[in-house]
Specification:
Keywords: Oxidoreductase. The protein is an alpha/beta fold. It has two domains: 2-122 and 300-329, Medium-chain alcohol dehydrogenases, catalytic domain (Quinone Oxidoreductase, Chain A, domain 1), CATH 3.90.180.10; 126-275, NAD(P)-binding Rossmann-like Domain (Rossmann fold, 3-Layer(aba) Sandwich), CATH 3.40.50.720. Helices cover 24% and strands 25% of the residues. It contains nine helices and 15 strands. It has helices at residues 46-50, 126-138, 155-166, 178-186, 201-208, 222-229, 260-264, 281-293, 310-316; strands spanning 2-4, 21-23, 34-42, 68-78, 88-94, 98-101, 106-108, 146-149, 170-175, 191-194, 213-218, 232-240, 268-271, 301-305, 325-329. The strands form three sheets. Strands 3, 4, 5, 6, 7, 14 and 15 form a seven-stranded mixed β-sheet that branches. A six-stranded parallel β-sheet has the order 10-9-8-11-12-13, with helices on both faces. The protein has a two-stranded antiparallel ribbon with strand order 1-2. Helix 4 (178-186) links the parallel strand 9 and strand 10 (191-194). Helix 2 (126-138) crosses helix 8. The radius of gyration is 20 Å and the shape is globular. The N and C termini lie close together (12 Å). The structure holds NADPH dihydro-nicotinamide-adenine-dinucleotide phosphate. NADPH dihydro-nicotinamide-adenine-dinucleotide phosphate (NDP) binds next to helix 2 and helix 3.
Length: 330
């Protein structure tokens, strides 16, 4: 069994010194445990946060432990009453070729599922469901309003924008290349801004959102958040889903500088956490499946071949060279 583990807490971009590989032998499993042969590993920005020793919604990854992440795989041994050899499962395990699980945070892929396994880490998994619940529930977005989405060509952003379009909203996406912006237009975004080639983001947002911003879906933080704050409508909502611009920061990150706009616009900041919606996952997955079948949702996955590439694939999330949901095929 190969594993990537946390050897030291990283500073900045994660190096192979902080997260090296090792061989690990699974000696035996106990009653109530099973062994999963991982087929796909989910590569998520949130993992960077779990490497920090800071209070959060989950305990930090302990030094010496395998890097935590979602995976999908096959049960190859089981002493667990609910799982049999051959079951296809997805859930929280780690960057490792085989995982031992006691069933915590583990789900079975239905035998009659028409979708490939990898979908359970992308569109039918946490990122698809994040987009779904954040837009349809937490953001308070209503038909006719304007949604501004950052990291819009990414996994969460691209799905969230399409759901908002279906609700009858104007949707503007911010992304880091002309190719990504072009793709967003093909999947229904009304307008796009390439933040890497735009000097004045505040003015560009004002042009793309002539009626102001009702919901800013923040995946990024930093300068884009500041520019969005200057374009909020009265009673706007800032949905705080992520802050990837600062995940690799080595110093405390100042700002947002335009925080006063929250007061000036009687706006609300709403934190979003996908784990608040666990009980509603099966129902939402059915809806997403239906939209997929009806051709109403498009999404991109970037599947990197080879377990050894987990760390390099992870670091690509932070320079934007990924195209859609990043997965590693073991
Ligand atoms: P993505 O597929 O969107 O990949 C990350 C993207 O972020 C990159 O492709 C890049 O796109 C963009 N990015 C990276 N650095 C910067 C930067 N400095 N400034 C602006 N954009 C940047 O990842 P996900 O869809 O998986 O995650 C998106 C966000 O959602 C993350 O912040 C993540 O933490 C959050 N999240 C939160 C959840 C929750 O429950 N709160 C659950 C799941 C995800 P580009 O080329 O456009 O720069």
């Amino acid at each position: 069994n190969k594993q990537f583990y946390l050897c030291e807490r990283p500073e900045g971009v994660v190096s192979s010194k902080a997260v090296p590989q090792r061989e690990h032998i699974i000696e035996a499993i106990q009653d109530g445990e099973l062994i999963i042969e991982n087929q796909y590993i989910s590569i998520d920005p949130a993992i960077r946060g779990w490497m920090r020793d800071e209070p959060s919604y989950m305990p930090p990854i302990e030094l010496g432990s395998v890097i935590r992440s979602s995976t999908v795989g096959k049960v190859v041994a089981s002493c667990h009453p609910d799982y049999q050899v051959g079951d296809r499962v997805y859930g929280l395990s780690g960057w490792e070729t085989y995982s031992v699980s006691n069933g915590f945070f583990l789900n079975k892929i239905p035998d009659d599922s028409p979708y490939p396994e990898n979908y359970y880490l992308s569109i039918m998994g946490a990122v698809g469901l994040t987009a779904y619940f954040a837009i349809t529930d937490r953001s308070g977005l209503k038909s006719g309003e304007t949604l501004l989405m950052s990291a819009a060509a990414g996994a969460v952003g691209s799905i969230g924008g399409q759901i908002a379009k279906q609700m009858g909203c104007r949707v503007v996406g911010i992304a880091g290349s002309d190719e990504k912006c072009g793709w967003l237009k093909t999947i229904g975004f009304d307008d796009t801004i390439n933040y890497k080639t735009t000097e004045d983001m505040t003015a560009a947002i004002a042009r793309a959102c002539p009626e102001g911003v009702d919901v800013y879906f923040d995946n990024v933080g930093g300068e884009i958040l500041d520019a969005a704050l200057l374009n909020l409508n009265s009673h706007a909502r800032v949905l705080f889903c992520g802050s990837i611009a600062s995940y690799n920061a080595t110093e405390p990150v100042p700002g947002p500088y335009n925080w006063w706009q929250i007061l000036a616009r009687s706006a609300e900041v709403r934190g979003f956490l996908i784990s608040d919606y666990l009980a509603q996952f099966p129902e939402a997955a059915l809806t997403i499946g239906q939209w997929l079948d009806e051709g109403k949702l498009e999404f991109r996955e970037e599947i990197v071949d080879g377990f050894d590439n987990c760390l390099s694939a992870f670091n690509r999330l932070f320079d934007g060279s990924n195209n859609g949901k990043m997965l590693v095929k073991v």
